[in-house]
Amino acid sequence: MATNGIGTPVKRKEDLRFITGSGRYTDDIHVPNQAYACFVRSPHAHATIGAIDTSAAAAMPGVLGIFTGEDVAADGLGGLICGWMVKSKDGSPMKAGPHPILAHGKARYVGDHVAVVVAETFEQARDAAEAITVDYGVLPAAVDVAKAHDSGVDIHADIPNNLVYDWEIGDKAATDAAFAQAAHVTRVDLVNNRLVPNPMEPRAAIGHYEFGTDSFTLYTTSQNPHVARLVISAFVGIAPEHKLTVVAPDVGGGFGSKIFIYAEECVALWASRKLRRPVKWTSDRTEAFLSDAHGRDHVSVAEMAMDQNGNFLALRVNTKANMGAYLSTFASCIPTYLYATLLAGQYKTPAIYCDVQAYYTNTAPVDAYRGAGRPEATYLIETLVEECGKEMGLDPAEIRRRNFIPKDAFPYQTPVALQYDTGDYEPCLDKALELADYAGFPARRSQSEAKGKLRGIGFSAYIEACGIAPSAVIGSLGAGVGLWESAKVRFSHTGKVQVLTGTHSHGQGHETTFAQVVAEKLGVAYEDVDVIHGDTSKTTVGMGTYGSRSLAVGGEALVKACDKIVAKGKKIAAHLLEAAEQDIVFQDGNFSVAGTDKSKSIGEIVFAALVPHNYPAGLEPGMEETAYYDPANFTYPSGVYICEVEVDPDSGVTEIQSFTAVDDFGNVVNPMIVEGQVHGGLAQGIGQALFENAVYDESGQLLSASYMDYTMPRADDLPSFVVHTTAGTACTHNSLGVKGCGEAGAIGSPPAVMNAIADAIGTRVSMPATPEKVWRALQKTNLAKAAE
Amino acid sequence: MTSVTMTVNGKAVTKDIEPRMLLSTFLREELGLTGTHVGCDTSQCGCCVVHADGDSVKACTALAVQFDGASVTTIEGLAQNGTLHPMQEAFRDNHGLQCGFCTTGMIMSSVDLVKKAKEQGITIDEHYVREGLEGNICRCTGYHNIVKAVLAGAQSM
Ligand code: FES
Ligand code: FES
Questions:
Q1: Is the complex ipTM higher than 0.90?
Q2: Is the CB–ligand 2 distance for residue A200 below 6 Å?
Q3: Which of A254, A295, A258 is nearest to A379 (CA)?
């Protein structure tokens, strides 16, 4: 086995550049002669755009060009697209309004891009942008998704009631029948609050058109540069695909918000062609709040039908999903195929029905954010299940155990499309109970009470679907792309290896993990493997990183490329060792003749392939193999999280006392990196539960548009976590047996925190559970008690 | 335009700049020291922390002219003679970073935090580190490993 191979907590290759400040993020790049862009953004949530007076701005120092939606239209450019077509219950296609790269005729949310100024310096561009006057005709705005249908506001022409689609899944008749038979029904009304992803690196883009070669380069903060290239060439139409290179260098976090193709990067590229100057744009934090795609924002009603023993009979859910003012790149699939298909959770509920209405509102577009649909599903189920337990008088562990899909039921077909290949839920629960010392909770609660504090414990048993695929299935569900992945393994004369992957790393440590896989599979030194990603001119093609797909899909493509290398190596070895090909065994980097001591190292084989002086006749020289992998199914990580909180009844402040996460990720390549992924996810999920909230007022102003108004979790808000990755159940349909770990923490933690708070204060509040909300809830309960 | 002179990572520099130029812009754009990152514009995130005359400073909300005559250290100047600072090593050893964007500011803050604690005889424990890093936001790590890294770095500093 390779020393730094699969299963070892190897320190990361990428860290040296990051800890020394020599990382290369988009804003660190300077293209000679670059100019700077500043956007004029709508201050109104909904307004007609009349005359735009650019005369004063145009005369200001350094200004090179000013462009508006009129110019975009005059150049005949297309708009941004939503790449997933969802059909309504009645079979009609979803209603996608136009999404121009600069607003034309109308602005639809605060921050919508109305014009752009390009100048010699950023300060000059900003000064000039402030001198532009726009004749806005302010219109009434629709903001709240629960009211979007009847708001009387038409955000897009010909889309009545702002309804994008009215979609359903599951068996309505069977579900209704089960409800009619139920001994007990538990119902919850839930709001899944809107979040701003907030990667620490703000988005940035440099568009660079080169006249001499008629070619385009876009440097951008993207999680999937090839898809950006596809959308910008095939739909927006700024550059032909073969003349466009998209480079996503070091990217400072994405969490979903950098999957999407944004107006600003398109405009930077287009303006570069118009001005024949490289054009750079860097978002400031307030622009990021206003215009990065937001996450979540569901309003739901969920009901569980049970028999007298608390066995789940049927689940019925209605959800209204806020899409914002335009459909972002993958927006439509989040509240449908990535949400409602996960509503079975870890439970063997026989009948499920869910319908989802998606609406436009005058807010920033909403799309995937860490977990994308699965956190919304998990919050809903795990809140409902906890309430079911309470109403049935069952312990939270017991209600779950009773309804878990049993170990011998896998592969398990859920009533909502997915088939879980593998899983075993009780061991995770047992381990979590042990690590969280559940048995000791009553004593800890008494101790808190003695101090005048309220202590609570909350559970969450999540499941997620990662490594989204297979392409044929998602195609039948409306996806506009295939979700395979590619990998190339390329040897040089000296036996060094370059790996080119179509995935993209923005903090996940692929340079390390992928090198470990290659070291293991080919028996080369880990140090001799370099992983290249994020540049469409270097890597073959790919679909990028999101949905915890990189290892389960991209890693498996890499394994397949390694397999091809070994297969070719066997042919060469057979020739050099004068043996039959079928007698060659490859192990730990050596090709040997079975049952003999004759062998050649992979380095010698590679050298023979590149210096083919003694070489099999008819075999192509070179040692470079490409593989594509399209998985047979999603992967299904799962886990059980337990959170313990202490609430101060005088202030309403919640303190997390402990957080225990037990996950089944299947096989693990680098346990250190996997644990780090869980930590980060937990912080984001706890952030949603306790602090974070994107708040629009009724007129559509974003009230939480800076770090002074939007509460990001900080070091002193969080505890050290207890994280345990169990031996797990390996994924059955990729050879690595991996499942994906990037989103688990954000998916599983919000309900655990909220259930713990409910347990502590005896009533439910909505997320985020701010001290004010908790305090008010406690006052209400006290008043009610006093009145009894 | 106005002239500023300062010592940055041990080297004297003089530049003519607009008086409104931020220290972060000065370091990044005028000197090409892009290890100082800008994550916000409100002094909240700490991605831009540098040391000036021995104290940590958020470079995104300070004017470069305020540092005329000062001695500034950025992340690029932390390693000495090709040897990483113990805090840099500690971040790497403890997986205290993921995307790396907050990391440079996080390391600069941590170095100052530990130095001050040692000067003042404060015990460096988890609580002290968590409170001390309140001005630095990390979106990736959940702080768990950052805290571990700072405690380890404090040991070897
Ligand atoms: S960039 Fe200076 S505090 Fe955020
Ligand atoms: S490592 Fe990405 S923000 Fe901290």
A1: yes
A2: yes
A3: A295
